[in-house]
Amino acid sequence: MTDIFRIPKLAETADGTVTVVHWGQACGLLFRVGDHLILNEVRPDGLLVLCPRGWGNPMLGRHNQGELVAEPSGAPASPLRWEVAGSVSAIERDLERGGIGPGRWWTAIRVECTDIAVMAAARGMFESGWMTSSEVDEVCRRAAVAPELAGVSVAVAAADSQALAESLLETTRTGRLRFQLRPILPMEGATAVVFEGPWKRYRDTARHWAENETAGVRVAKSRRVAAGGGSRVQLSLFGDTASVDG
To answer: For the chain, what are the domain ranges?
Structure first.
């Protein structure tokens, strides 16, 4: 089942920060390029960061019945080769990337500006409180353009409680979103993961077909079919056309 996931690639920067350098998925969460993993050095449980003893890059892992395993592959990780750097307690990313997990989040917001009048107006635009994930994303989009449109800089933090969100916000830089890690484990028997867009533009698709025709490749013809017909064809996502062999 794990071969349907792309494993996140991690790297450690000169200041000791663990960051994602190639996107991937683990524990039902999508890790994006540029994400910083905030580690809790006190309780090395949950989703772990494993550092190599010697040459190599860090990787995600878990404790499984007392043994270390890589995440999401589940492959054993020998303690002779890997050591636990800490558990991932939060993720920090650029505001415009958003995309925190589903559910309700207490969202704490900090607005910074040297102009008192501008600050007062901006605070009315950004109010802390309980939000859904889509509402948090909307706040992040507005906060990302706030320096240009409102003349203020904004930092956002989200967690299960007000106290934790405000604690995360204290160390979150403006222009960034920091949110508590709440892993959502994939369901057993899952066979696919769908990621949103970006969809191909029409001319990209047209170019692909033109290249196939130029190369002499036989391309499937398209015809319209009834939605309740008995023909075994693949229906389009956006209409009732289908591709069949001519």
So the answer is: 2-91, 96-180, 202-244
